[in-house]
């Protein structure tokens, strides 16, 4: 619980390497995550080589932490390994479809959270990179991912060179629905976002972006409609290319 409630994204890292023993312990924690049918339809690609990380860097929009952090870990939906095992046993797999991409994506994300928690419990810092799905086609080329394997999310991992404050979260009442989903009234929405909109961080963001409210920072700056559509098309094409839309 201490690790969970102390989580913060780290974007500045020391150059100190992560020992192989520590890294293996962290990765083993990833493999203990819940998964679909104990099939583990995911793979974890660990990149420590500086030259390869340099190739990955543009895929993550050149964020400095990709080169600063000594470890970059890409979590992938992967039906290839399980399908190959099935064929070796005379069982014909039918996992080349969107349903099994979803299963693999869930497995990969569950594993990534275990890795993140174990890393933080060992004094390391992590940051998830949302850019993974934006440039999945390029990541596939850099990491030489074969058919049946699609990148879902990425972690950078290393020893922190900063100690940022904890990010706020919406109140429990804004997230949890009891028994059934109860749609939000305008008054609910106002209460849920009240503290975040009044925070000093939000005030600074509004000043920097010269915008009247936090919602417009998301829609006009961070996650714009045109980008959303473009990145969606890239990822759908990746699913087709990697064989997840055959049925």
Explained architecture:
- By secondary structure, the chain is of the alpha+beta class.
- The protein has 2 domains: 2-164 and 226-241, NADH Oxidase (3-Layer(aba) Sandwich), CATH 3.40.109.10; 172-222, no CATH class.
- It has helices at 2-5, 20-31, 50-56, 65-68, 80-88, 98-121, 136-143, 172-175, 186-198, 200-209, 214-222, 225-241, and strands spanning 42-47, 71-78, 125-129, 149-158.
- The protein has a 4-stranded antiparallel sheet with strand order 1-2-4-3, with helices on both faces.
- Helix 2 crosses helix 6.
- The model has no long low-confidence stretch (mean pLDDT 97).
Shape, principal axes of CA atoms? globular
The total beta strand count reads 4
Radius of gyration: 20 Å
What summary fits the major beta sheet? 4 strands, antiparallel
Count the helices. How many?
12
Which spans have pLDDT < 50 for at least 5 consecutive residues? none
User: Tell me, what is the CATH class of the largest domain?
Assistant: Alpha Beta
CATH homology superfamily name of the largest domain: NADH Oxidase
Comma- or semicolon-separated keywords:
four-stranded antiparallel β-sheet; 2 domains; 12 helices; NADH Oxidase; 247 residues; 49% helix; 4 strands; alpha+beta
Which SSEs are present, and which pair or pack?
Elements: H1 2-5, H2 20-31, E1 42-47, H3 50-56, H4 65-68, E2 71-78, H5 80-88, H6 98-121, E3 125-129, H7 136-143, E4 149-158, H8 172-175, H9 186-198, H10 200-209, H11 214-222, H12 225-241
Antiparallel strand pairs: 1-2, 2-4, 3-4
């Amino acid at each position: 619980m201490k690790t969970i409630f102390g989580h913060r994204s780290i974007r500045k890292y020391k150059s100190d390497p992560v020992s192989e023993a520590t890294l293996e312990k962290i990765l083993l924690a990833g493999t203990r995550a819940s998964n679909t049918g104990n099939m583990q339809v995911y793979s974890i690609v660990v990149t420590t080589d500086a030259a390869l990380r340099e190739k990955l860097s543009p895929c993550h929009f050149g964020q400095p932490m990709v080169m600063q952090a000594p470890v970059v870990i890409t979590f992938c939906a992967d039906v290839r390994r399980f399908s190959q095992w099935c064929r070796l046993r005379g069982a014909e797999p039918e996992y080349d479809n969107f349903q099994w991409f979803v299963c693999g994506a869930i497995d990969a994300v569950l594993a990534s959270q275990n890795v993140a928690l174990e890393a933080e419990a060992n004094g390391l810092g992590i940051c998830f990179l949302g850019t993974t799905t934006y440039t999945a086609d390029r990541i596939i080329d850099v990491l030489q991912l074969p058919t049946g394997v699609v990148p879902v999310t990425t972690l950078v991992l290393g020893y922190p060179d900063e100690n940022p404050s904890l990010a706020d979260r919406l109140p429990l009442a804004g997230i949890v629905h009891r028994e059934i989903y109860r749609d939000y009234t305008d008054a609910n929405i106002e209460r849920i976002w009240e503290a975040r909109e009044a925070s000093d961080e939000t005030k600074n963001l509004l000043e920097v972006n010269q915008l009247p409210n936090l919602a417009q920072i998301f829609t006009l700056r961070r996650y714009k409609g045109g980008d959303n559509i473009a990145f969606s098309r890239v990822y759908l094409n990746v699913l087709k290319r990697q064989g997840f839309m055959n049925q």
